[in-house]
Amino acid sequence: KATVIAIANNKGGVGKTTTTAYLGEALSNRGLKVLLIDLDSQGNLSQIFNVTTENGQVFNSLVNYTIPLHIEEVTEYLHIAPSDLELQKAEQILLSAPASQQRLQRALVPFLDIYDFILIDCPPSLSVLTLNALNAANSCIVAMQPEMNAVNGLNSLFGVIYETQIFSNPTLHIEGILFTIVEKNTVHTSMKEAVRENYQSVNIFDTEIKKGIEIKKAQALKAPIFDFDKNSAAAKSYDELALELLNNINSK
Amino acid sequence: KATVIAIANNKGGVGKTTTTAYLGEALSNRGLKVLLIDLDSQGNLSQIFNVTTENGQVFNSLVNYTIPLHIEEVTEYLHIAPSDLELQKAEQILLSAPASQQRLQRALVPFLDIYDFILIDCPPSLSVLTLNALNAANSCIVAMQPEMNAVNGLNSLFGVIYETQIFSNPTLHIEGILFTIVEKNTVHTSMKEAVRENYQSVNIFDTEIKKGIEIKKAQALKAPIFDFDKNSAAAKSYDELALELLNNINSK
Ligand SMILES: Nc1ncnc2c1ncn2[C@@H]1O[C@H](COP(=O)(O)OP(=O)(O)OP(=O)(O)O)[C@@H](O)[C@H]1O
Ligand SMILES: Nc1ncnc2c1ncn2[C@@H]1O[C@H](COP(=O)(O)OP(=O)(O)OP(=O)(O)O)[C@@H](O)[C@H]1O
Ligand SMILES: [Mg+2]
Ligand SMILES: [Mg+2]
User: Fold this and answer.
1) What is the arithmetic mean of pLDDT over B207-229?
2) Which of B116, B110, B114 is nearest to B138 (CA)?
3) Per-chain residues with Cβ under 5 A from ion ligand 4
4) CA A16 – ligand 1 centroid, Å
5) Residue of B nearest to A194 (CA)
């Protein structure tokens, strides 16, 4: 059965979409079948792989449970359920829909035996879309940039994860905190320290994703990072992350 | 009467809060009375000035229209209506409230004659909180980092601004696009070019805000940027922006 992971953080611009895309790529390069789900409010994940929603999108399956998820192939081992700006409308419509927070969970059922990993890219909020991701997932990776603005929201995110666990999804746990867009400066170093001290019971990945211009370049060209430059620091970091994740899961 | 400006962009992490805080500081340093409104989903704006919500917060005035906005003083000329994580609950509650999108506009009426500028920091979404800001504002500054992920959402933001103009707030216009967290690299240069080409009818501020470590340091210390280092590039850029904004407004 597939391991389903939500990549979340209500703080904006911390590398959620980038992590979903490149961790997905790294896992698929290791021969695992990976499905990516685009719940980014602007469809940024689909853009990174230059995938359009002409033939269907996640929005349709959330608001109409009879429509199966539409899947596009990026490579043989890497598939994506795309989105575009339409997704913004889902929040309003779902609010009055029955089981509004369990729609994605139901939509993923037919795919749990087909893929090894399903990664869900979340929007920067604790809205009904993020709740759909947390109900559909077994675990959650919290992408965070080690900056003051990003640390503040962690408690409310952990609170929401904990309540989802109690009410509807007992399997949900935090896979780990991942430091992203990390720079060599005193602020980042001290913030990482502060997070380690304040969240001792939470796993923090050893792998960190350093800030690198090749990520911005690859995204501007809509090329996957491993195609763009597989020897880049970013590609190597995300491959390292994939390995660390696999080791963590296998050792449980 | 006060000039009310919403600092918006549904893309996350592009410097909305930083711009609201430091443009506010720069305007108040020039002798103008400025009120900042914290609609950031994590209350980041209040944090930057180390202001707490012990004595009240925006959330209370939005959900209960009889409670006046609670104002804290940062300096004699710079005040703030603070928020904390409670604000996230406002989205749910407002959805079934009458005139859910006009609550802030009504709450600001008593302050329009007291301040010269009112700046509203928006969350990274086109939700009911951002709609409250767009209905309360005369104009909107679109903070954007010149990266691929940030350009995509512009059309939907402009669409929402345009519809707010037609339905409820005819005075609303785009004051300008402000390039933020700008780095000297090919991606940023080409993205700025692309924005200029695709949005020729929209004003783009000449002032750009370069990326600088002093902003991260000031925010980690919860110190206003002009107190932290008034000679920093960031403080100078935001002062330049204040001047450009004042010139644009005066020349109309
Ligand atoms: N390691 C990195 N080095 C350099 N740039 C990066 C890195 N990771 C992400 N970025 C850039 O930072 C910006 C924000 O990243 P991304 O869009 O993945 O964040 P997000 O958390 O998904 O944002 P949102 O909250 O808006 O969904 C993007 O422009 C991306 O190209
Ligand atoms: N010019 C700059 N140079 C360096 N860092 C900056 C600059 N402007 C903002 N930052 C940093 O970038 C991060 C994002 O900025 P900020 O929180 O202001 O963005 P935002 O658009 O308000 O985010 P959100 O969408 O989550 O509300 C913060 O950690 C901030 O310290
Ligand atoms: Mg994203
Ligand atoms: Mg903000």
Assistant:
1) 94
2) B116
3) B 16-17, 40, 44
4) 7
5) B220
Query: For ligand 1, is residue B152 a contact (CB within 6 Å)?
Result: no
Q: Does B127 touch chain A (CB under 8 A)?
A: yes
What is the pLDDT of chain A when averaged over all its residues? 95
**Percentage of residues of chain B with pLDDT beyond 90:** 90
**What residues in A contact B125, CB-CB < 8 Å?**
41, 88, 123-125, 127
pLDDT for A151 equals: 80
B10, B127 contact by CB (below 8 A): no
> Which amino acid appears at position A112 of this protein?
L
If pLDDT is split at 50, 70 and 90, which confidence band does B41 have? confident
Q: Which amino acid is at A70?
A: H
Whether B169 and chain A come into contact, CB under 8 Å, resolves to no
- Place B223 in a pLDDT band, splitting at 50, 70 and 90: very high
